[in-house]
Design brief:
Blueprint lengths: L6 E6 L5 H13 L3 E6 L9 H8 L18 H7 L2 E7 L1 H9 L5 H8 L4 E5 L3 H5 L1 H12 L3 E2 L3 E4 L5 E5 L3 H11 L12 E6 L4 E4 L2 E3 L6 H12 L3 E6 L11 E5 L3 H11 L5 E4 L6 E3 L18 E3 L3 H7 L6 E8 L3 H11 L4 E6 L11 E2 L2 E4 L4 E3 L3 E2 H18 L1
């Protein structure tokens, strides 16, 4: 996405990370963007507006009216004429105001009047970020169709270690280029996409099951990334605490590998794209008990049988024009095992990640992947928040469809 000539509103809120917004503004201007900075009153306590006005070449706005002349800063005009609203950093307070429509400052009022894409880059202490109210507000804003640039992990201003660091300005610029701006950039408009997510639980008795550590975070991020490009997504997820209110994502919850197989079988024929991200159990008990098996002194052996391979079976049914993507989470011989899956399951693209990579794998907020296609192309990516990994995957799928 070329940023030259784009009208961008850069919202800056009251966080210590506001200093990063100075570098972000500099990069936006260097790209040729026309940037109007709007600061909340508390943001001015962290970074002076003179710095932003010097870099943008425009007065920084914070109030509805000019204190000197009484001129009105029209939030309606700014909101309706913008190509993008980028709030970086966005605090827990501003997230809450945006979620409920509390327009008590110029930034939130402008946001409410906007018709353009909205990108939010949170920054706060890790406990604030993890708090259920913050997570609920993030889900609400995702449901409005907005894009969250997930914060990174590391040392925070409080001295604690964890998620909450605003993403680096260079990565935010890269992310803006990836997602594009506006409806005209929705290259997957009305395409039908199937995404599987999360673990499966294979019942042993009413209180026990065989499962794995998958959280569903990656699959949900993929579904939201496809929806952001206009796709209609059927998200079939195993037991997961993840939720989404993203427009265009229909969530179907199942429990077992068998249930996921049946649901995918019902949906696959009408799909243009299918992404098999779920960590499906490879085995399920031969027999299950209707009552809890009581503890005893003797050993307890459970006979297992293989589950049906969802990706492989859907690969056998693939019809012309369909594009299938599989995931390979490996602990050793990663590339060799992944390429075997690519061939044996009739996939078009395989996404490889390894439990040996720090920050990748189950239940993390980040992932580090490599993608390989049937033409022998290998694409390596750095460790990134899962939302950005999802964006990379969607861009790769779009490129493959355009080249087909």
């Amino acid at each position: 996405m070329e940023l030259a000539g784009k009208r961008i509103i850069l919202g800056v809120t009251g966080s210590i990370a506001a200093y990063k917004s100075v570098y972000l503004l500099r990069l936006l201007v260097k790209e040729g963007a026309d940037v109007q900075v709007i600061m909340t009153p508390h943001a001015r306590e962290f970074v002076g507006p003179v710095t932003f006005s010097t870099l943008s070449g425009k007065p920084v706005l914070s109030d509805f009216f000019s204190a000197e002349g009484g001129d009105w800063n029209s939030h309606v005009e700014m909101g309706t004429s913008a190509d993008l609203i980028l709030v970086a950093p966005v605090t827990a307070t501003t997230l809450g105001k945006m979620a409920i429509g509390l327009a008590d400052n110029l930034l939130v009022a402008t946001y409410l009047a906007a018709r353009c894409p909205v990108l939010l880059a949170p920054a706060m202490d890790m406990d604030m970020y993890r708090h259920p109210s913050t997570q609920r507000n993030l889900e609400i804003l995702k449901g409005y169709g907005h894009t969250i640039i997930e914060p990174g992990s590391g040392e925070l201003a409080s001295g604690l270690e964890g998620p909450g660091r605003m993403e680096e300005p260079e990565n935010i610029i890269r992310f803006i280029r990836q997602i594009g701006m506006g409806p005209s950039k929705k290259k997957l408009l009305n395409k039908q996409v199937l995404v599987t997510a999360g673990p499966t639980h294979e019942k042993i008795d009413p209180v026990r099951f065989i499962g794995n550590h998958s959280s569903g975070k990656m699959g949900f991020a993929i579904a939201e990334a496809f929806a952001a490009h206009g796709a209609k997504v059927q998200l079939v997820t195993g037991p997961s605490l993840q939720e989404t209110r993203a427009v265009g994502v229909h969530v179907i919850r199942v429990t077992s590998a068998g249930e996921m197989f049946e649901m995918c079988s019902d949906l696959i024929e009408q799909m243009n794209i299918a992404v098999f991200n779920a960590a499906v159990s490879d085995y399920t008990p031969v027999t299950t008990s209707d009552k809890k098996v009581k503890r005893g002194d003797e050993e307890w052996s459970i006979r297992l049988k293989p589950t049906r391979d969802i990706a492989a079976e859907m690969g056998k049914r693939k019809h012309a024009g369909q594009l299938l993507v599989g995931f390979a989470l490996e602990t050793n011989d990663e590339m060799e095992n992944a390429l075997r899956k690519l061939e044996n399951k009739n996939l078009d693209l395989v996404v490889i990640n390894s439990l040996q990579d720090s920050g990748a794998g189950f239940a993390t907020d980040t992932n580090k992947v490599t993608m390989a296609d049937r033409q022998g192309n290998i694409y390596n990516y750095d460790l990134k928040p899962k939302a950005q990994v999802a964006a990379d995957l969607v861009e790769r799928v779009i490129k493959m469809m355009e080249d087909a």
